[in-house]
Design a protein that fits this description.
single chain, 438 residues, nine-stranded mixed sheet, 17 strands
């Protein structure tokens, strides 16, 4: 059955190439032939799964780039499908007719609700959990559900890589016997003493339930914490990065300068997750950093037109934490600015139109003297406007529009010297094309 599954899968890989499709179909057909197909393959010595509410794609891609740059061969589901069928397709593409994947490392980016379906067949050596945040409420419901989904079926010998700075993620340490590997971003010039994000966070000790005390915050609940009622507290990990500079997109670790691939704190955490894994499997830190600095580039869109700086920040709709990261980025910039918020669609995968997550975003931080105008654009322009009004932003500063073309002239004539786009992926290129022109 295994050989038949491989043969069928490889035929559909060829068909998919001819049709310019096929990230899931070959895997689907192979599993129809043999439901136990994945358990019958021979995998590489090192197997990694990357999951989490956000950042798993960029983290796994960076790991893949560094491994290839250092002479490793990899099997990676980089075709865009992170469910079981997509994982199976990647394995089919990389295995021979006997089911052996002749690669050095297996890297799988897997949706957090579906990792439990992969564990028992593939038995990962390492699991990176980038974060667990309130995400896609109609599908994910609650962070505790996602935590349990990720924990379910996980082999006890899998090493779990997470940040020490997020107390909620340390539920893995409390719930499971697995070895934990931690990384951290040290206190820096962007850290703050009093919490800025009041709408979303979980401040409570996962061990006893008491409200945690923070020495400082890096972002939302990320920071240095301790419980006033039990022994739960932040413990300095082996891999701790210092000297964060978001303007330059750099951080320091192991006495070396490391590119974080962006200008927001979330980029630093994703990069450090990749660094921790690569160092753990034995790659020299200097080689890792050289490769990361070569491949880890800022993926946000930025350009200057008529003396005005335009910056598009890619946000995942339905995820308040990624929006908060972008809001915080604009908040840190005290220059007079216009801000564009919007999307063409909320989700391409799920047929729902939930906007409840807008009320978890700390739009209140935008209500300051550096805000010139804020543009609510797209299908939910009125819902965005309602949320901005609730944040105390004057109605005179809010402009609604059906599309980006309608606001182009207003932005070009604006007295603001900077324009930030806090945008879903479907507005990133239109932002550049419409507002940037040639």
């Amino acid at each position: 059955m295994k050989i038949i599954s491989i043969f069928v899968g490889k035929i559909f890989v060829i068909i998919g190439k001819l049709m310019h499709r096929g990230s899931s179909l070959p895997g689907m057909m192979a599993l129809k032939v043999d439901k136990k197909f994945l358990s019958k393959l021979k995998y590489p010595k090192t197997k990694l799964i990357v999951t989490g509410s956000s950042g798993k794609g960029s983290t796994s891609s960076l790991i893949a780039d560094v491994l290839i740059d250092n002479g490793y061969s990899i099997c990676f589901n980089n075709a865009g499908s992170n469910l079981k069928y997509g994982v199976t397709t990647a394995c089919i593409k990389n295995c021979n007719l006997l089911g052996k994947i002749k690669k050095d490392v297996l890297i799988l980016e897997v949706d957090e609700r579906y990792v439990k379906e992969i564990y028992q067949d593939i038995k990962p050596d390492y699991l990176i959990v980038t974060n667990i945040t309130k995400d896609q409420p109609p599908r994910q419901y609650h962070v505790d559900i996602i935590l349990k989904e990720i924990e379910h079926n996980l082999p006890s010998n899998t090493n779990i890589i997470i940040t020490m700075d997020e107390p909620y993620l340390r539920n893995f340490e409390l719930d499971l016997p697995n070895k934990m590997l931690y990384y951290s971003v040290d206190k820096n010039k962007y850290s703050y003493k009093n919490q800025l994000f009041e709408n979303l966070n979980i401040y409570y000790c996962p061990k006893c339930g008491a409200k945690l005390k923070y020495d400082y915050y890096n972002f939302e609940t990320l920071g240095k914490y301790e419980c006033p009622k039990c022994d739960f507290k932040w413990i300095k990990p082996k891999d701790i990065a210092t000297n964060l500079d978001l303007d330059k997109g750099l951080i320091k670790i192991d006495s070396q300068i490391l590119s974080i691939g962006g200008d927001m704190l979330i980029h630093a955490y994703n990069t450090l997750a990749a660094y921790t894994f690569l160092k753990t499997i034995g790659i020299d830190s200097q080689k890792i950093i050289a490769s990361i600095n070569r491949y880890n580039h800022n993926k946000n869109i930025e350009f200057v037109k008529d003396g005005k700086l335009y910056k598009a920040l890619n946000c995942k709709a339905e995820n308040a934490t990624t929006y908060n990261a972008c809001v915080y980025k604009t908040y840190l910039d005290k220059d007079l600015k216009d801000i564009v918020i919007g999307w063409k669609e909320i989700s391409r995968r799920y047929n729902h139109f939930d906007v409840s997550w807008l009320y978890d975003v700390e739009f209140e931080l935008l209500n300051n003297k550096s805000l010139n105008k804020i543009y609510a654009v797209g299908i939910d322009k009125e819902n965005i406007k309602k949320r901005l009004l609730l944040a105390g932003i004057p109605e005179s500063k809010i402009i609604t529009a059906d599309n980006l073309s309608e606001i182009k002239e207003s932005i070009e004539q604006s007295k603001a010297k900077k324009v930030y786009g806090i945008l879903n992926f479907d507005y990133m290129e239109p932002f550049k094309d419409t507002l940037g022109g040639e």
